[in-house]
Amino acid sequence: MSVSIDAESGGVYIGAVSVQEKHDSAPTINQRKRQWYEETFIVLGRVCLKLHLTPNILTFISLGCAVVSGIYFWRADMLMGVVWMLATAFTDMLDGSTARAGNLGTVFGGILDHVFDRYGEFFILAGITMSGAVHPGWGLFALFGMLIASYTRAAAESMGKLENCAVGIMGRLEKFLLIIGGALTEIWLPVGTWPKGGWLEFALIVVGVTSFITAAQRLIYTKKVLGDRKSV
After folding, report:
1. 184, 82 in Cβ contact below 8 A?
2. Which residues does residue 150 pair with via DSSP β-bridges, in sequence order?
3. Which residues have C-beta within 8 Å of that of residue 13, sequence separation ≥ 6?
4. Which terminus of the chain is more exposed, N or C, with fewer CB under 10 A?
5. pLDDT, tens digit, for every residue of 108-139?
6. Which helix H or strand E contains 215, and what residues bound it?
7. How many whole angstroms separate alpha carbon 7 and alpha carbon 24?
8. pLDDT, mean over the chain
9. Reduced to 3 states, what is the DSSP secondary structure of residue 15?
10. How many CB atoms lie within 10 A of CB 25?
11. Domain segments of the chain as ranges
12. HSE-up of residue 59 (Cα within 13 Å, Cβ side)
């Protein structure tokens, strides 16, 4: 068995021996980012342990923050939507750090974190879509893009037994930062300064496009590792 930290969602993944171990390649940018992330934020995980906060509790808190963020976005309160979206990302980061600090990672905990992350993305993007600040089509485009990129990775790691398929040009954190940047710019600059819509809508378009590219990159990477083998 192998245990790894999900740098994209902050959770813990426990899986079978990876065929990826046989694929000799230099660490990717995302893998180096994961190592920096683990080393930097584990101290916060120790603080959470002292406060008796378990990884699963933090996962529930992160989902709650996402729901509140979505409600504020729905009410067109961009600033508070951003504040609670930052809280969502921060608590999501804490659950993985706490799992590492206390060696508390479990299979179910990793699955719970992964599923709740998708729920969180839904509530935030649904709130943005219903706010009227963006065209509903672009909201759905970004939401499906984020979901398919995540699903592609999950399928590669579960069915393909890859230890980690966190490759691609855009991770979850970067997508969150794009949405946050678009929402803040929407506050500071008049709506319509971008020719075909607001800044938040433009951010969602970028998120959607890069998510689909990321999904394609993960499929290509998985094909490179697995080749034409019929079992793993």
Report:
1. yes
2. none
3. 3, 4, 5, 6, 110, 157, 164
4. N
5. 998 999 999 999 999 999 999 999 889 999 99
6. helix 199-226
7. 21
8. 84
9. strand
10. 10
11. 2-226
12. 23
Return the structure tokens found at 79: 């600033």
Q: What does the pLDDT look like over 160-176, one tens digit per residue?
A: 888 888 888 988 889 99
Give 208-220 pLDDT, tens digit per residue: 999 999 999 999 9
Is 49 in a helix, a strand, or coil? Answer: helix
| Longest CA–CA separation in the chain, Å | 55
pTM of the predicted model as reported, rounded to 2 decimal places: 0.82
The H or E element containing residue 204 is helix 199-226
The Cα 57–Cα 75 span in angstroms is 27
The pLDDT assigned to 79 comes to: 95
Assign domain 2-226 one CATH number from 3.40.50.880, 3.20.20.70, 1.10.4160.10, 1.20.120.1760: 1.20.120.1760
Give the residue from 24, 13, 38, 57 showing the smallest Cα distance to 161: 13
Closest CA to 127 of 175, 190, 82: 82
Rounded to 10 deg, the angle between the 78-101 and 172-188 helix axes is 160
Element (H, E) at 188: helix 172-188
Instruction: Count the Cβ atoms, other than its own, within 10 Å of residue 173.
Output: 17
Q: Looking at residue 41, what is its pLDDT?
A: 78
Q: What is the pLDDT of residue 189?
A: 78
First-to-last alpha carbon distance for the chain, in angstroms, is 14
